[in-house]
């Protein structure tokens, strides 16, 4: 869904390599198959936040084509976008909806996470008024401190769900805060607690449904909790969840943020560049203006520290990144000029990628990707 003010003629654009998305999903699948020596678990691919900024509908379609069994969203409206596009696969809602959203949730037949009795009752009522049955997934908090019931309350809640008229316990799940570190003791203890909780539900004579926990970090580092289903997000978009994990998979960045030089000017030594005059040219050089800025999601923290790639070579960003433009020093004898394509980040190992930008901005690749704003057109490459 592009807003009306997105221009497809604009220099700044996000090229979405759907081939890489497909490749990454297959790579995760093969990694699990190889390690298990048999059938890989089901996959719920996270397409929340507009598929991490890549475009929810196109990415969901590729995910399904690559074998996704479920799709994961964070809001009812994201679920609505998928249903409007004709997607019929089960959609797992990762967050708790407000009471005012439950009617729509039921009509869209989303499968929500549930974590307390009151919400279970409200959902059962919403399902009844919509005349549908809903699959729900019991979310157990084993250490994330976010939504999820206490492990000791899980069997009772599972039993409550079982006794509703309109809800079916289709899954039991948890989530990891530090699975992006290999060999974390905290994660090991969470896995034990989660698997013990699932066993208690079974011991109470209740089918827990699909047992699932693994985000990208746990798919890469914790095979003992792949269980019935995994929930990858960042890895399918081509990035590791953190710098602390072994790089054992061939993940390829899906998004390439591109722009173009629109203006060049030769300047004298000591010329101030951009707001605040925080940068002055050390010698005579040529300064190129790129029509992209923090209004496009290109972080202002990259001012004077980031780099871009033009015709295979990299050049420094000089001065502050503005809302809609920034400047690059292309040298006194430039080989590029107006019309040259500029890569802000992308899959080329020699150029900047979202991980490098994240490091420079003290954040994570997730933040860099989801920050690309709606005015940047997404151009899909099959
Ligand atoms: C976002 C999310 C995921 C995917 O996490 P990644 O780190 O991107 O793999 C999985 N499960 C839940 C509940 C999430 O919110």
Structure report:
- A nine-stranded mixed β-sheet has the order 11-14-17-16-15-18-10-1-19. An eight-stranded parallel β-barrel has the order 2-3-4-5-6-7-8-9, surrounded by four helices. Strands 12-13 form a two-stranded antiparallel ribbon.
- It has two domains: 18-237, Alpha-Beta Barrel (TIM Barrel); 255-381, Lyase, Ornithine Decarboxylase, Chain A, domain 1 (Beta Barrel), CATH 2.40.37.10.
- α7 (154-162) packs across α8.
- The mean pLDDT is 97.
- The chain is built from eleven helices and 19 strands.
- The chain has 382 residues and is of the alpha/beta class.
- Pyridoxal-5'-phosphate binds next to α9.
- Pyridoxal-5'-phosphate binds at residues 46, 48, 94, 175, 215-217, 231-235, 241.
Q: Which key phrases capture this entry?
A:
382 residues; alpha/beta; TIM Barrel; Lyase, Ornithine Decarboxylase, Chain A, domain 1; 2 domains; nine-stranded mixed β-sheet; 19 strands; elongated; binds pyridoxal-5'-phosphate
Mean pLDDT over the full residue set: 97
Task: Work out the strand percent.
Answer: 15-25%
Global morphology: elongated
Q: Tally the helices.
A: 11
What count of domains describes the coordinates?
A: 2
Helix/strand structural class: alpha/beta
Write the layout of secondary structure elements.
Elements: E1 13-17, H1 18-36, E2 42-46, H2 48-53, H3 56-65, E3 70-73, H4 76-84, E4 91-93, H5 102-107, E5 111-114, H6 117-130, E6 134-139, H7 154-162, E7 167-173, H8 185-203, E8 210-214, H9 216-221, E9 229-230, E10 255-260, E11 263-267, E12 272-273, E13 279-280, E14 285-290, E15 307-310, E16 313-318, E17 326-329, E18 341-345, H10 354-360, H11 365-370, E19 378-381
Parallel strand pairs: 1-19, 2-3, 2-9, 3-4, 4-5, 5-6, 6-7, 7-8, 8-9
Antiparallel strand pairs: 1-10, 10-18, 11-14, 12-13, 14-17, 15-16, 15-18, 16-17
Helix pairs in contact: 1-3, 7-8
The structure holds pyridoxal-5'-phosphate.
